[in-house]
Design a protein that fits this description.
There is one protein chain. This protein has two helices and seven strands. It is 25% helix and 35% strand. Strand 4 and strand 5 form a beta hairpin. The protein is an alpha+beta fold and 77 residues long. It has a single domain, classed as Beta-grasp domain (Ubiquitin-like (UB roll)). The longest helix is centred in the middle third of the chain and has 12 residues. Strands 2-1-7-4-5 form a five-stranded mixed sheet.
């Protein structure tokens, strides 16, 4: 199982901040594509990706037991 954490607007769009995927190993880009298809998260392309609390690139590999987080750009005042 891979745990997916969604933050801010992505969590709102998906209706949940946490998703569990029954995958053994996959690329971060494949997780992103899956989330776009299943949850309509079109803005996920702008999000930063972290695996186990370390920022990574789209081609990084996520394995069973990992946590991948998608963090959209935020603004505030």
């Amino acid at each position: 199982m891979i745990k997916v954490l969604l933050f801010a607007g992505l969590a709102e769009q998906a209706g949940t901040p946490v998703i569990e995927l029954d995958e053994k190993e996959t690329a971060a880009s494949a997780v992103k594509t899956l989330l776009k298809e299943r949850y309509g998260l079109q803005t996920i392309d702008n999000a930063m990706i972290a695996i186990n609390e370390t920022y990574v690139k789209d081609n990084s590999i996520v394995t069973e037991g990992d946590t991948i987080a998608f963090i959209p750009p935020v603004s505030g005042g």
